[in-house]
Amino acid sequence: MERDLARELERLLQGVLGTSSQDSGRQGGLAKYLVERLKDRLPSRLWPYLEAEVQVPGLAREKAWDLGLVYPVEPSLPKKPRLLLSLKSILRNPSGSWPNRLDDLVGEVSSVQMLFPEVVVGYVVVLDHGAPTKRKGTYKRPEGDELLSIYARFKEGLAALAQRRPPLWAQGLVEAHWVLEMDSRKKPLLRNPEETVRAGEAFLDTLVEALRQREPLLFLDEG
Q1: Which candidate, 207, 178, 188, places its Cα nearest to that of 88?
Q2: Do 43 and 221 form a contact (C-beta atoms < 8 A)?
Q3: What percent of the chain has pLDDT over 90?
């Protein structure tokens, strides 16, 4: 199964590179992949409420999340986000992008957690080791593995933020993260394919287990 999922991820990453950076649906394929993998872990009655591009209220403003399980407490009440995923990528100017990605993550997560403190949040990011970097006003491809140290700092920051569990309930933290690393200068694109798949499966397991502990009634009729 890992090989089949790795091939699917490879195809999706090729689609990401072939889509304009201005296209809001650039991560749509990855969102669909995650929806299907989550369905294997969630009761079937929840599947209709698991969607890509869901509008969710935040303290400052409403925001479209890349993927969400938004399920009503009761039919007469507003729908409530139970599980949200944010999908991002760094495909250009990594040295200037990664600090902003961490700041953006804290901001978007804090806004929704202020209204829905029990929501489970996951963060997915695609990193390109062949991403052009801005130097002296022009973009140039990196040489060798020169982006390793930059991405290592970014991943350290993500790991520090992905630990929202008792007793650490601070706003701005997430329950789990998944990093997909590729190199657009090479074929195949995906680095460490099967390891990436395993990390993705563990990521989803962590999110669903957090949801099960926080919202056990959602799983009451499981099986």
Answers
A1: 178
A2: yes
A3: 75
* No. of helices (H) and no. of strands (E), the chain: 5, 7
The share of the chain scoring above pLDDT 70, in percent, equals 94
Question: What does the block give as tokens for 201?
Answer: 């499966």
Kindly report, residue by residue over 44-64, the tens digit of the pLDDT.
999 999 999 999 988 888 899
Question: In angstroms, rounded to a whole number, what is the distance separating the alpha carbons of residues 21 and 93?
Answer: 13
Q: Running DSSP on this structure, what letter comes out for residue 221?
A: T
Domain positions in the chain: 2-16+25-219
Rounded to whole angstroms, how far apart are CA atoms 213 and 62? 27
For residue 216, pLDDT beyond 60:
yes
